[in-house]
Amino acid sequence: MTDNSPETHADDRPPKVERGGLWGLFLGLAGLLFPPYSGLLSALGVVQGLRARRAARAQGSTAPGALSSVVLGAVGVVISVAMVSVLLIYSDQVREYRDCAARAHTVSAQKVCDDAWESGTGLPTMVVGG
User: Fold this and answer.
1) pLDDT digits (tens, 9 = 90+) for 100-115
2) Model pTM?
3) What angle do CA 41, 47, 49 make, to 5 degrees?
4) d(CA 105, CA 86)
């Protein structure tokens, strides 16, 4: 079994562990959970993960979560771009769906709105928050 732990310093103290990767992971996850801010939070997660990896490499230490934060942040950025593009491409249908959903006071009325969205766009209602 190999020892993958970072080398100790000359005075036998353990190397510092870079915590920025965990912050980047937190930001990337927050980007997936809060859609209005997903693009910004996910991009910050990517940047923080890359900075943590660079700092850990320069110090000869580790950055737990840094690579995961870059991957998770990139996924969040892609999802955010996809959501924004759908909202731009189908802006008229989004407006109609939201107006219909605001007027729907019963489950059957909401189902009519959902069916109209899906038949008009071919996309599930979860794209527009339905």
Assistant:
1) 999 999 999 999 999 9
2) 0.71
3) 100
4) 26
Tokens of 2: 């190999």
Find the DSSP H helices in 1-106: 20-33, 38-59, 66-89, 91-103
Both tokens assigned to 65: 């979560």
pLDDT given for residue 63 in this prediction: 84
Distance CA 120, CA 17 (A): 52
Question: How wide is the angle at C-alpha 123 spanned by C-alphas 117 and 86, nearest 5°?
Answer: 95
Per the structure, the complete domain to which residue 51 belongs is given by 12-88
In a domain, 63, yes or no: yes
Q: Are residues 77 and 16 in the same domain?
A: yes
The SS3 call for residue 68 is helix
Residues 25 and 51 in one domain: yes
99 and 115 within one domain? yes
Residues 40 and 77 in one domain: yes
Whether the Cβ atoms of residue 24 and residue 49 lie closer than 8 Å to each other? yes
25 and 80 co-located in one domain: yes
